[in-house]
Amino acid sequence: MAAKRKQEERHLKLLREMTTLLHNRKCFDCDQRGPTYADMTIGSFVCTSCSGILRGLNPPHRVKSISMTTFTLQEIEFLRTHGNDVCKQIWLGLYDEKSSVYPDFRDPQKVKVFLQEKYEKKRWFVPAERAWAVAAAHASISGSSASSASSTPEIKPGKSQTSDTTPALPLNKGTPTQGLGFTVKSNMWKLPWIVNIYLTGTKTRLNII
Length: 209
Hints:
The chain is 36% helix and 16% strand.
């Protein structure tokens, strides 16, 4: 009994550490600070108000109070590999913040309609495999760009691959090149996704395989 209690406390500690991460500090569905529930259907962190709306969707989402219930190791791992950042790539992957406006989150009815559009109609949904691959590619590119010039050599494509005005793409040492562009392999989430980055003029196009 004592061992079980100790394990539950350890899981709760891990869960609370997750909610301190920058992308998990706000409710995934309304941006309210300090999420109090975990959406076990998609792996996000939400507020009390949104948890009630999520339960009423069709099909209903399974939500659990962070402080009032216990979590299994499998549930903790599910939340760790998802979280609000990954959920945004999946459920708001097609959402254009420049042309679209978020609803007034102070109005529960507008929030409900927004969540119905998001989850029931899957209006901005992107398949998880594609969303994770894009996120992994972004992380790899950001990490390479942040490296110093002394530690990260510049690899310039040949003239047959791109024009002379095409900027060099900084990559980490050991990053292989393939075909007409560069191949970036990411171990993020331990997924074997490979993203080919092709340079066209001064623009970069991602071709996801």
